[in-house]
Batch of 2 targets.
Target 1
Amino acid sequence: MKSIKNVNVHEDIAVSPLAIPILAGPGTIVTAMNFVSNAAPLQIFLVIAIFGSMSLLTYFTFRLSDLIVKTVGNNVISVIGKIMGLIIAIIGTGMIIQGIKITFKLLS
């Protein structure tokens, strides 16, 4: 029988399918379309420049994710993840309540 040595597996979680809709989901696309629908060329350029800078910021954040985790620590990352999950749940609950109000004409 051969013995299996412990193998270090490097798991890079910087890119995940959950990150893609947050970066360029339907809300982002609709907001960008609303900002440039009847806009001057300067405003269109500003929207594109902001999108480009956010893309670069996200890229560098993903590239430096190992350093960020080492600096901040796993516990802080875990706490931030739980707080963000709570915030997303609150936003989703608010959207559901707003949809029920609109559907049944309960707006006051």
Target 2
Amino acid sequence: MKGKLAVGLVSTIVLAAGCATRPEKIASRDLLSAKVERAIALFKATDPSIQAYFDSSYAYAVLPEVTKGALLVGGAYGRGEVFSRGVKIGYCSMSQASLGFSFGGQYFREIIFFQDEATFERFTAGSFTMSAQLTAVALTAGSASRTDYHYGLAVFIAADQGLMVDASVGGQKFQYDPAFVMRDESSTP
């Protein structure tokens, strides 16, 4: 039974990885926004000191539901929203693949804070990948107050449910899609 669950999770992740960064339907966007709001509320309730990151970061990405599964070959996928100064400016998706002795499945929430504009521009420029040196902080009361930016990023994870414990974020690949595309007024007749 556990094997079937893991295979199902990995299959779901692989299929989801082909999904668009921005939800296609308005109802799906609204659902994602509601999940993002709940995730932010959960992070703030678990550790109120995380508010300092929301207040001071240049931008942040919230992935309210990342699915991770493995049966020797593993993968993870999640979709979220990106904010700058508290205003939604786009969507992002994350995919991750791993190979090695792993087994299980997990759901978690992730918030990535970008310290400055240069770090955020690397994220929005194309396929952004987190380095293997970067690890996430498992959110607990007071953990945000004891954490600092590394390489311009601060990453927090709140485990939701599952049988796999792994807070590594190295190898996560992100795609960014702006919330709207401004029309170039100079090119119109």
